[in-house]
Design brief:
2 copies of one chain form a homodimer. Chain A is of the alpha+beta class. Chain A is 30% helix and 25% strand. The first copy, chain A, contains 8 helices and 14 strands. In chain A, the strands form 3 sheets. A 7-stranded mixed β-sheet of chain A has the order 9-11-8-12-10-13-14. A 4-stranded mixed β-sheet of chain A has the order 2-7-5-6. Chain A is globular and about 65 Å long. The interface between A and B is large, with 78 and 78 residues.
């Protein structure tokens, strides 16, 4: 089996081969030039700039892999800022001995996902570290996007609705199930997807109605809600009976003792929207790819200032705290 | 001693503390927001976009550290494209148990260098991986810059002069000496520096005279020259007696058997320039910070098409091949 050798990161001939024949051939001939930087034409105005590193174990999981995750994660970080993603970087840290087949599979996945998301991978870097000094492969993607609309953060108001674009907790649970070799969780799949087209579709007609957008990745929906109410006089109420959670996620959640609300999502956007527009936004999302199961899941109120909480079907109230340290499942 | 814990990468409270109190406090209050991306005002036109990951051992070396390297490396990659660096990202992969003091020292170094280079660190990401799954700390910096001048790559011509902004091989040798605990090499220091101001100074009056610019990092001067002549009908001649190499670098080079021409530089720019302007460019560089020891070190000719070679003081000719795999010292 062909494996990554120290020379693949040396700056010499083997590294040139890797970049030209393995990487650049996949990402397109104009991309990943041997120049030190890519040059892009940008329209005047504001640009969004973001970075994310992916260190997930396992590298391959039902519904995706680290490469797909790395493209979508950064595309989504730009999209939730109201930006149109235009270019990504791809920086690899590869452990010596890493199977070349796996690398090629990951790069294929990145190239395919970038194509679907209509974003170009334009610059890259590859480092090879000694065996035992990395965990297979780490991928950093940074991204830039152009902002044309109005992305001023608007103040969240009591009465605003909390919308999620689909089911909750799938990515985290799929990864945990794979890690634990839980074969009965066979239908569980990561929701890993690019949300830029979905979000652009919503912004086209509802830009002024959205107060806040975020993709609830690490820490899940509960952590994002905690962030938006922290220190404020408002609280975030989730209606338990409205939460879209699959039976597979619920089942695994019970077994692992992990609340789906704290489980990572990699293809969902959470929006806080003007109450008068929330229903329209949900109906629109349902007509768009990756938004078919969109729902209103809660409301901003003032019942527990600074807190997020769950209103149960039988009238109970449960605070959803900002978790500390090891309480959160380690997904990425 | 305070150390990095798993929770510092969990997405919970400990991670918020790390980002707000340890990272954001150093990089400036407007930077590293908890948003998913930074928003920047960009002037119309072209932008340059680049990425680089730093995996160096040791993390601290005479003349710099991984943080300083990470800022300067990306600033320089933008500068050699003729871009004015405006914003950097900072993505950290930290091994559990990494000393907090070392992290703070590295972040201080990044913040200080960014300030000197007049570039802002505007977005970031932090991942903590289990002990044994990284080598202390890896840092990825991506960067964007604006391009206002004419950066069309011009064809390199026979007769063009090869200019280096200062001494050759210092960074690689300083790192190797530190790694080998060679105490007699005490005066050896990395040349780690940001070159954007030096390059902007040259471009201001000589934009049209520069055919090519590159910072000869991994692989050194010889590898960059190989790249520019590869497959072409020209060759790159270096004049041995004109090479600015310190006695310390020469001495260590003899002991380690590493040619300084293949040793990494982290604060040098190599330019190929119109012969009529070369002398002026060198004189100008010598008046600018980090360019005090600039020299013409060679000429483009047609003697060995596709090759770089060294013309020795006694009239010899030595080809400087593109090295393969393990022939190159592993610096970063």
């Amino acid at each position: 089996m062909k494996r990554i050798l120290p020379g693949h990161g040396s700056g010499g001939r083997l590294m040139n081969d890797l970049i030209v024949n393995t990487i650049r051939s996949r990402f397109g001939s104009e991309t990943l030039q041997l120049d030190d930087a890519a040059v892009l034409e940008a329209s005047p105005g504001r640009i969004a700039f973001t970075t994310d590193t992916f260190t997930i174990t396992p590298l391959f999981f039902p519904g995706g892999d680290i490469g797909r995750l790395a493209v979508n994660g950064t595309v989504n970080d730009l999209a939730v800022m109201g930006a149109t993603p235009i270019a990504l970087s791809c920086a690899l840290i590869i452990e010596e001995g890493f199977p070349m087949d796996d690398l090629e599979r990951i790069l294929d996945s990145m190239a395919g996902e970038a194509k679907h998301a209509e974003v170009r991978i334009v610059t890259g870097d590859t480092k090879v570290v000694p065996h035992g000094k990395a965990d297979g492969i780490f991928i950093n993607t940074s991204g830039i996007g152009t902002i044309t609309g109005d992305t001023a953060r608007r103040e969240i108001q009591p009465g605003d609705r909390i919308i999620i674009s689909g089911t909750i907790g799938d990515h985290g649970m799929a990864v945990m199930a794979t890690r634990q070799n839980l074969s009965f969780a066979g239908n569980l799949r990561s929701d890993c997807a690019h949300l830029n087209h979905l979000i652009a579709g919503v912004l086209r007609s509802h830009d002024g109605d959205i107060r806040f957008m975020r993709d609830p990745t690490r820490g899940g929906v509960a952590s994002v809600l905690n962030e938006i109410v922290a220190g404020a006089s408002i609280s975030a109420m989730l209606s338990e009976e409205d939460l879209p959670i699959t039976d597979e996620v619920r089942g695994l959640s019970d077994i692992l003792g992990i609340d789906p609300l704290y489980s990572a999502n990699e293809g969902k956007v959470l929006m806080v929207a003007d109450p008068s527009a929330a229903e329209d936004i949900v109906n629109l999302m349902r007509t768009l790819e990756h938004g078919e199961q969109a729902r209103v899941i809660g409301t901003i109120d003032t019942e527990f200032p600074g807190k997020a909480y769950l209103a149960t079907a039988i009238g109970g109230r449960r605070i959803l705290p900002l978790l500390t340290e090891e309480q959160l499942p380690r997904i990425c």
